């Protein structure tokens, strides 16, 4: 059967000195380390048959796509379905034991971790990410595509495609900065999901958000 591979790439490290959850806020761009991470990811796929490149509209994702565009001679298409998930705590500090999570005024938002009640429902994230992946697969049929997105949407897509429950412990996501979660299709059937971290040698990065 015809093989098509869709690589879901998480963006590189973001410049975030205030360590807030930046979500969909504008103006958050890659740090110097994040730019190196993007180049490392592009190098990892330099010899692959990538024919289609698409990104979340957010700046950090488009910046992560740029080394691929330059290396492969491809245009960067934008797909709003690849955007970061919506979150009530956007713009706030939400580290364990500090910031907004210590303020009782926000506790009502945490009432249901299964939906989750503080953000975009997992089922809606999964639905739009499947649409984005299927669109990229059609554009690259018989070849490979790279979709630049964000940690939670990529992880939610992976859980949905593996037939697993969507609610989870965020600390257990396997989706590091500039990592590749690759979906291998034989014809229209998903045959394999692989994961790699081509920028791991640069460090885990810092800051908050995805």
UniProtKB/TrEMBL annotation:
One MF annotation (Gene Ontology) recorded for this entry: phosphatase activity
Pfam (any one): His_Phos_1
Cellular component GO terms, alphabetical: cytoplasm
SUPFAM superfamilies: Phosphoglycerate mutase-like (SSF53254)
InterPro entries to which the protein is assigned, alphabetical: His_Pase_superF_clade-1, His_PPase_superfam, PGM_Phosphatase
Highest taxon, organism lineage: Bacteria
Name of the molecule in the record: Broad specificity phosphatase PhoE
Species of the source: Catellatospora methionotrophica
């Amino acid at each position: 059967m015809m093989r098509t591979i869709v690589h879901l790439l998480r963006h590189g490290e973001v410049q975030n000195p205030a360590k807030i959850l930046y979500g969909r806020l504008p103006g958050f761009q890659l740090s110097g380390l994040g730019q190196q991470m993007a180049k490392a990811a592009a190098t990892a796929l330099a010899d692959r048959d990538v024919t289609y490149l698409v990104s979340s509209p957010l700046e950090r994702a488009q910046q992560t796509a740029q080394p691929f565009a330059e290396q492969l001679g491809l245009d960067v298409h934008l797909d709003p379905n690849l955007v970061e998930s919506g979150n009530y705590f956007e713009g706030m500090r939400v580290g364990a034991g500090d910031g907004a999570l210590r303020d009782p005024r926000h506790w009502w938002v945490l009432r249901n971790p299964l939906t989750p009640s503080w953000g975009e429902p997992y089922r809606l994230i999964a639905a739009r990410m499947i649409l984005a992946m299927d669109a990229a697969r059609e554009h690259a049929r018989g070849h490979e595509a790279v979709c630049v997105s964000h940690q939670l949407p990529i992880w939610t897509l992976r859980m949905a495609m593996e037939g697993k429950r969507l609610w989870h412990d965020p600390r257990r996501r396997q989706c590091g900065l500039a990592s590749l979660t690759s979906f291998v299709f034989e014809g229209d059937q998903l045959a394999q999901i692989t994961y790699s971290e081509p920028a791991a040698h640069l460090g885990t990065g810092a800051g908050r958000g995805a």
